[in-house]
Design brief:
The protein is built from 6 helices and no strands. The protein has 88 residues and is mainly alpha-helical. It is elongated and about 45 Å long.
């Protein structure tokens, strides 16, 4: 978020407040949601190894990714891939 704030010529807190007012959610929450949606798409629509998905969507930690995915979808990435209809 610091880079985005810098690009906008704002402090991080001012950027966060402006973003929240304009979009309705904080930028970090919006980014997390976007990353997890993209991960779900990759799991459902590609043959990309599950172990490669976290890095592809911007996570450095597989554990952090796993927890965020489970919080969003109520299941692990592996469970999601096993139950998602394939559209390859």
């Amino acid at each position: 978020m610091v880079t985005l704030a810098r690009e906008a010529g704002m402090s991080r807190s001012a950027f966060t407040a402006a973003f929240r007012e304009a979009v309705g959610t904080p930028p970090a929450r919006r980014l997390t949601a976007r990353r997890i949606r993209e991960a779900a798409r990759l799991l459902a629509e590609t043959g990309l190894p599950q172990s490669a998905v976290p890095a592809r969507v911007g996570y450095r930690s597989r554990v952090g990714f796993h927890l965020a995915f489970r919080t969003t979808y109520g299941m692990t990435p592996g469970e999601y891939r096993a139950t998602a209809p394939r559209r390859v």
